[in-house]
Structures are given as C-alpha cells and as structure tokens.
C-alpha cells in the first residue's frame, strides 16, 4: 500500500509519515498476528498510534447468544475514537493455542489463508453490513421513540392466527438446495414454516365440545371458575350470576379452574359463555358451519397443534383428583369457536419462517406433488407434499386466496425416467381406450407414496402400502397392497423368468414390524423393487400379472386352470 500511494522514497529509503487512507467511507485492516505479509495501518497514518494496541476482534463463541443490541453496545466500546480517528482501522485476530511459541513459524504461511475461515472475521463483516441499521436505531433513541419490534413484512405467529391448512411437507432450502421436513401453515395472506416439531406440538389433556348445555360459572372464591358440561353437574353448581360456596368435590362433567386474578377469571367467563352462545346458534342454523380447518400433520401419539384459530389462550390452574386429595396443576387453556381444549404445555413459536402471498403465483406439479410459490420480485419457495390428498387440499386452499394465481402443470408420463412404455396388444385391450388404439403405446408409472396401518377381519393389524398408478389412458388411481401380495407376485415371476433376471424382493422381519422408521425404509425399498418389476414385465408374457397387481386389468377368471396342490404349498411356504 505504501509503494502504491508513493509515500516511500526509493532513493534514500526514508518514509514520509502521514500517509492518506483510501478515499472510501470506511477502511479496515484485519490481520493475523503471525501473518508474514500483514502490517498495521494506523501508525503509518499517525505516528502517535505506534504505542496503541490494535483492536481485538470480538470472539464469536463468547457473544453468539447475545442480542443485536448487546453486540452493538460492546462493539461501540471497543471502537471508541482515539487520537483524532473517528473509528479504529487496525483489528487483530485471536491466536489459537497451537499457534503460540515455537509453532508460530510452522503456522505462519497457513495464517495468511485463514481469514475467511474465521468465525470472528465473519461476525466483524456482518457488524459492518448492519451499520445502516445502527444509524436508524440511533435516530430512534435520540428522538426517544420506542424501537420497532418487527418490520412491516413480518407477522408474528400466535395461536390466534386464522390458519386455513396445516400439513407436513418437504421444504427446499434456497441456500443449500436440500429439502427438510417442516410443518407448513397457510393463513389468508401468508405461509409459515415450522422446523422444530418438538417445540410446536403440545400434549393435549382433554378437548371439550361447546354445546347449548355447556356453562361457565363462578367458583368458590374470587379467582375460581367452573365449567359444567352436563345437566347433572349444573343442578349442583352455583349460578353464574353470583358467587356461592360449595364443597370441593369434583363431579363428573365438571372442570374447576383458578385464575391469577379476578379480572382474568371474569374475562374467561365472558369469552366462554359468548362462545357457547355462538356454538348453540350454529347448531340451530343449518346454513352456517364452523371454520373449515384441515390438519394433515404427522404428529407423535398424544401430540397436537390444533390450538390455532383461538379466541382466547392462557395459563390457568386446573383442580384434579390425585388419590385421596386434590391438586392444582398448571394448564394451557385454548378457547376456539366450538371447542375448549386443555394442554399440558404451550408451544414455542419463535423460530418461524414465513412467505407472504401478496401477488404471487403458485405453480402446481401434480405428479411430483410439488408446489412452487413465486412472488412478483422473484422470491420463491418450494414444498413437496406427501400424497394426492394433501396436494388436492393445498391447491383448493390456495385457489380460495384472491392474491394467488394457480398455474397447474400437466407433467407428461413419457418425460419421467421411471415410466415404461407398453406396446403389447393385450395391454391395450386390458386398460386402453378405443380412441387411443392408433397411438404408439401406453405409458405406465408407479410410485409408493407411503403406508397405512389397518385392521383385517380378525381385528389384527397389518400394513398396507399405498401405490399411486399413473397411466396415459386409464388416468391416476391408488392401489393398496400388503407385503404378502408383493411376495406372491415375486413368486409368480420366478416361475416365468430366471432368478437373475428379476430384482430381489426386499426382506422383512418378524419383530417391530410397525416401527415408523422401518416402515419408511421398507416403502422406499418396495418402490425401487416395483419400478424394476414394471420395466422387466413390460411387453412380456408377465404383463397380465403386473396389470392385475396394479388393478389395471380384471382378475383371472374362475375358468383358468388352477395350480396344483404342490404349487399352492410352495406359495404358502414363500
């Protein structure tokens, strides 16, 4: 820098003090203490700075849990003006333990390339990028105006949000390109993305439907209230008009709560009785239904996120019978249009991503269950839903939002790498149409969406794998098959082909058959197996078996020759 600015006399080697800094708004010199080609700038500008130590960069690991305001206060203390400098120029990085002593010679060359790998340097850069925000904060503080909590484009997610649909989806990260599972909520003008399921889902204790006989009444003291759900309990409960004294026994159909103050108790009484009156009116009128909200989220047993669209939510103490004595437990109570729900805990809705739906286009790809929402300025979000039901529901809800334009893309089956072309005449007679007889063939694609746990005739649980079948002539259909049916198909194919010509059937196990992770892996393995079977059976004598398995052809008639008892025993053994 000194040679470039001409402040060094090459003839006699003397330095002219007081060089000028580059003509820019801010200039910083970051260097590593053992970097062999780094040097300080401040002593070259003013000789008085040679005895002033450079500013030590803030350590990221020590301040990563602090707020932006705390970081700014600490930063201003480090960079206070000195010797006429409006701000400091030299900043030195922190030495690591292995770079001290005799080892600094070994790490000297590596230190020159370690700047952008340092978290401290990244933090310093971010603090400089946020300098305009600091200037705005200073103007607010000098004018003694309250600081804004949220910018205009960000809306806080609370249980009072009017959620139209909630579902589990794979959301693509625009930075890394990876897709991660999120809970996606849609409001009238906004999408919300929740990544931490454990902090969002709450454990529900009970759920009470509000009817005409439901009443909220005064309790035994100024802080208590009673919710009566039956006529038998109402006959032994005090009137809501005036408090009354009664025994502490908990009757069936009676819930006793204690609020933190009398005004809080009265507010709950008023809101519950008003919701009961509205719910009773909805029961009498057939033309008006409660809010239509769909929940398609995969949650653990006992967990729930049905607390949105709340009229009122808050913590109360519930009186519960605990053996021979009664106890008071903290409960999170949520009042909705037609229900009153009690939870053990409240959700944490802090880490929420959002995408506004104002003047957006929703591109819907049905075969891949992909929905891509694009804003007018180019911002976009991609999410892949789980199945056809969820996809149809998303398209229906997005179509009800006036600021969203729906664009449905029809994906051609012949463009999919997993599709097979069926050329045989028998296949056209089985599931083709007369008007398609002149075409080159018919395209077929299968996809295992997931699994469902059902009960058979003996009330025994079994797993049915859901197969989506897409045909260029027969359209889309859904088929459910058990693993034993896959095994039966595999056994029949082994009679027609050599063993090395057909794919291996994924195995099964005899214990923990209903474990979710195991069933997901099994569905993925069967999906690959079925794709290979479709490619092998296309345009061969095994095609009728495949079409019957996918319900694209009627089952074999009773007049067909039956298998021998030996073959039947072999099928049972496999």
From TrEMBL:
<dbReference type="InterPro" id="IPR058055">
    <property type="entry name" value="PA-PLA1"/>
</dbReference>
<dbReference type="InterPro" id="IPR001849">
    <property type="entry name" value="PH_domain"/>
</dbReference>
<dbReference type="Pfam" id="PF00787">
    <property type="entry name" value="PX"/>
</dbReference>
<dbReference type="Pfam" id="PF02862">
    <property type="entry name" value="DDHD"/>
</dbReference>
<dbReference type="GO" id="GO:0004620">
    <property type="term" value="F:phospholipase activity"/>
</dbReference>
<dbReference type="GO" id="GO:0005737">
    <property type="term" value="C:cytoplasm"/>
</dbReference>
<dbReference type="InterPro" id="IPR011993">
    <property type="entry name" value="PH-like_dom_sf"/>
</dbReference>
<dbReference type="InterPro" id="IPR036871">
    <property type="entry name" value="PX_dom_sf"/>
</dbReference>
<dbReference type="Pfam" id="PF00169">
    <property type="entry name" value="PH"/>
</dbReference>
<dbReference type="InterPro" id="IPR001683">
    <property type="entry name" value="PX_dom"/>
</dbReference>
<feature type="domain" description="PH">
    <location>
        <begin position="309"/>
        <end position="403"/>
    </location>
</feature>
<dbReference type="GO" id="GO:0035091">
    <property type="term" value="F:phosphatidylinositol binding"/>
</dbReference>
<dbReference type="InterPro" id="IPR004177">
    <property type="entry name" value="DDHD_dom"/>
</dbReference>
<feature type="domain" description="DDHD">
    <location>
        <begin position="1"/>
        <end position="131"/>
    </location>
</feature>
<protein>
    <recommendedName>
        <fullName>PX domain-containing protein</fullName>
    </recommendedName>
</protein>
<feature type="domain" description="PX">
    <location>
        <begin position="443"/>
        <end position="557"/>
    </location>
</feature>
<dbReference type="GO" id="GO:0046872">
    <property type="term" value="F:metal ion binding"/>
</dbReference>
């Amino acid at each position: 820098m000194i040679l470039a600015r001409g402040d060094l006399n090459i003839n006699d080697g003397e330095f002219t003090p007081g060089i000028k800094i580059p003509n820019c708004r801010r200039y910083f010199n970051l260097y590593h203490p053992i970097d062999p080609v780094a040097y300080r700038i401040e002593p070259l500008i003013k000789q008085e700075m040679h005895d002033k130590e450079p500013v030590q960069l803030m350590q990221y690991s020590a301040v990563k849990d602090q707020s932006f305001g705390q970081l700014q206060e600490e930063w201003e203390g480090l960079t206070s003006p000195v010797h006429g400098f409006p701000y400091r120029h030299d900043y030195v990085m922190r030495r690591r333990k292995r770079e001290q002593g005799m080892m600094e010679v070994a790490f000297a060359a590596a230190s020159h390339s370690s700047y952008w790998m340092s978290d401290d340097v990244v933090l310093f850069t971010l603090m400089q990028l946020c300098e305009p925000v600091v200037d705005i904060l200073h103007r607010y503080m000098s004018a003694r105006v309250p600081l804004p909590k949220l910018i205009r484009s960000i809306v806080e997610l609370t249980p009072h949000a009017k959620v139209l649909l909630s579902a589990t989806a794979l959301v693509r990260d625009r930075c890394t390109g990876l897709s991660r599972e999120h809970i996606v909520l849609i409001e009238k003008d906004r999408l919300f993305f929740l990544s931490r399921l454990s902090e969002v889902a709450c454990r529900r204790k009970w759920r009470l439907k509000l009817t005409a006989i439901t009443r909220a009444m005064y309790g035994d003291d100024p802080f208590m209230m009673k919710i009566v759900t039956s006529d038998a309990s109402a006959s032994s409960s005090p009137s809501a008009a005036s408090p009354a004294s009664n025994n502490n026994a908990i009757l069936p159909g009676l819930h006793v709560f204690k609020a933190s103050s009398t005004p809080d108790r009265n507010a709950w009484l008023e809101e519950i009785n008003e919701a009961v009156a509205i719910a009773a009116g909805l029961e009498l009128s057939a033309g008006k239904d409660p809010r239509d909200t769909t929940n398609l989220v995969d949650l653990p047993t006992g967990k729930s996120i049905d607390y949105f669209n709340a009229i009122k939510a808050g913590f109360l103490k519930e009186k519960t019978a605990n053996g021979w004595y009664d106890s008071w437990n903290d409960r999170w109570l949520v009042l909705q249009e037609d229900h009153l729900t009690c939870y053990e805990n409240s959700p944490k809705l802090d880490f929420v991503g959002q995408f506004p739906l104002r003047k957006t286009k929703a591109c819907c790809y049905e075969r891949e269950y992909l929905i891509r929402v694009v804003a007018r300025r180019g911002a976009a979000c991609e999410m892949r839903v789980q199945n056809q039901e969820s996809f149809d529901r998303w398209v229906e809800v997005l179509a009800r939002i006036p600021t969203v334009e729906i664009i449905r893309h029809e994906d051609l089956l012949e463009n999919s790498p997993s599709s097979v072309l069926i050329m045989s005449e028998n296949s056209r007679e089985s599931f083709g149409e007369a008007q398609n007889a002149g075409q080159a063939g018919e395209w077929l694609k299968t996809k295992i969406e997931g699994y469902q746990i059902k009960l058979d005739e003996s009330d025994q649980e079994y797993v049915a794998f859901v197969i989506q079948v897409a045909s260029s002539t027969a359209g889309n259909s859904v088929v459910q098959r058990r693993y034993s049916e896959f095994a039966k198909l595999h056994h029949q194919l082994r009679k027609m082909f050599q063993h090395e010509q057909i794919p291996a059937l994924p195995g099964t196990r005899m214990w923990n058959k209903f474990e979710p992770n195991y069933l997901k892996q099994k569905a993925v393995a069967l999906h690959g197996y079925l794709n290979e079977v479709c490619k092998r059976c296309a345009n061969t004598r095994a095609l009728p078996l495949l079409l019957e398995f996918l319900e694209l052809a009627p089952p074999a008639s009773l007049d067909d020759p039956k298998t021998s008892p030996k073959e039947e025993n072999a099928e049972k053994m496999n």
